[in-house]
Specification:
Layout: H1 12-36, H2 40-43, H3 49-61, H4 63-87, E1 98-102, H5 104-107, H6 113-125, E2 128-137, E3 145-146, E4 152-153, H7 154-170, E5 176-184, H8 198-214, E6 219-225, H9 232-245, E7 250-255, H10 280-287, E8 292-296, H11 305-322, E9 328-335, H12 350-362, H13 366-369, E10 372-379, H14 385-396
Parallel strand pairs: 1-2, 1-10, 2-5, 5-6, 6-7, 7-8, 8-9, 9-10
Antiparallel strand pairs: 3-4
Helix pairs in contact: 1-4, 8-9, 11-12, 12-14
């Protein structure tokens, strides 16, 4: 896989996969052709070009060597068919292990059924079997927001959200939908930490139960931020939510990315707070109670494609080393604008992120690679046809 930004790099993962498959075939062809010209005439060292060509032709026409040439031709044909099979693999046979984030415009946007149906068909076509649908944020007054602008009380929007869930699931029987809820650990920059409040935990647990048991969601996605390493309050919150929703409902956790891995350090940037590097033990504690862990591969502060690709690959390798076989790892890949010090949309592209995922998978053995079940597309608008093409070529057809 290439790690450069030019357009030629986008299909490098597929090319490397083909090389892995075809190298033994091409080696066999070379051996057959070499052995066909290894007789006494070839060893005699005759220097005349015409004489050499005549000897080669004579050798190739010999009955024994015609078999070798035929075998070589068969290998060439077989390799061509293999290339065609790889490049045109039946995507419909792939498991729908990928996911997509849906912002409030989907849940609260009063979309017509036709448009939603078309969108669901697009998801199924691209083997996306799960949606993380934004539902609410927990406000300073410990009320859950609702409505298209997030200013209303959630309970006033409850019926609309339930209707969206029902309509979405009716468009695709195999689709799952998890309620994405946003929880800020701090209310201000001075003394607003609140994740140690047991009443807050109970509020979140009861809200999660409402979403799953009464409104049709298949589980909840806990998006708790900012989250620093070794936070026992977060572990207790997750356990409280698990008790509320039950073992049969999925709990997904959005995992904060490591901004300053030891081997991939950035220059000192004041806006990166200490404690953003989760310890291996804390990562394992976060993974343990979760059904899914979503790695947030954006806002990396990286300004070079190669740096970003390696940063993504680092997370794949790290979490696959720590995860249990019962926990799914999904990699959230960016497809949005909004430039900032943390997010360079020209660097943090879907194509570069998928390069990073594929590079990370390349570093794993087969057993650990199986823990990374898919990717989750994070976008601030509907994907264009060009976006879907990138997703197909660099992920589904890799």
């Amino acid at each position: 896989m290439s790690q450069s930004p030019d357009s030629a790099s986008e299909n490098s993962s597929s090319r490397r996969g083909l090389r892995t498959i075809l190298n033994p075939v091409l080696s066999s062809i070379a051996k057959l052709l070499t052995s066909s010209g290894s007789g006494s005439s070839a060893r005699s060292g005759i220097g005349h070009l015409g004489r050499q060509r005549a000897l080669r032709l004579s050798a190739l026409l010999a009955p024994r060597n015609r078999l070798r040439v035929g075998a070589a031709a068969g290998l060439v044909l077989a390799s061509g068919l293999l290339i065609s099979a790889v490049l045109n693999r039946n995507i419909e046979q792939l498991p729908p292990n990928n996911a997509i984030w849906l912002d409030r415009s989907w849940v609260y946007g009063d979309l017509d059924e036709r448009r939603l149906g078309e969108f669901v068909n697009r998801l199924v076509e691209h083997r996306i079997g799960k949606a993380y649908a934004y539902v609410s944020s927990l406000g300073a007054d410990e009320r859950w927001s609702g409505g298209a602008q997030g200013a209303a009380n959630f309970m006033n929007s409850r019926d609309a959200v339930a209707q969206f869930v029902e309509t979405f699931k009716s468009k695709g029987d195999e689709l799952e939908i998890l309620a994405w809820i946003e929880i800020w650990t701090h209310l201000d920059n001075v003394d607003g930490y609140r994740l140690d409040d047991s009443n807050l935990h109970q509020n979140i647990a009861e809200f999660s139960r409402l979403l799953v048991k009464e409104m049709g969601f298949d589980g909840v996605l806990l998006d708790v931020k900012p989250m620093f390493s070794d936070n026992d309050d977060f572990i207790r919150l997750t356990q409280r939510v698990r008790a509320a929703v039950g073992a049969e409902s999925a709990i997904a956790i959005a995992a904060t990315a490591d901004l300053t891995p030891p081997d991939l350090r950035l220059q000192n940037i004041p806006s990166i707070a200490p404690g953003t590097m989760w310890s291996p033990i804390f990562k394992q504690r976060v993974i343990a109670p979760a059904d899914e862990v979503i790695l947030l591969m954006y806002q990396s502060y990286r300004q070079e494609p190669l740096d970003y690709v390696n940063w993504v690959a680092y997370h794949i390798e790290t979490y696959a080393d720590l995860a249990e076989s019962s926990t799914k790892i999904l990699v959230s890949i960016p497809n949005y604008g909004g430039a900032s010090n943390a997010h360079n949309p020209a660097i943090e592209t879907m194509a570069n992120a998928l390069d990073g995922v594929n590079e990370g998978l390349r570093r794993l053995d087969e057993e650990r690679r199986a823990l990374v079940t898919g990717v989750a597309i994070y976008s601030d608008e509907q994907l264009s046809q060009a976006d879907w093409n990138v997703f197909r070529e660099q992920w589904l057809q890799r």
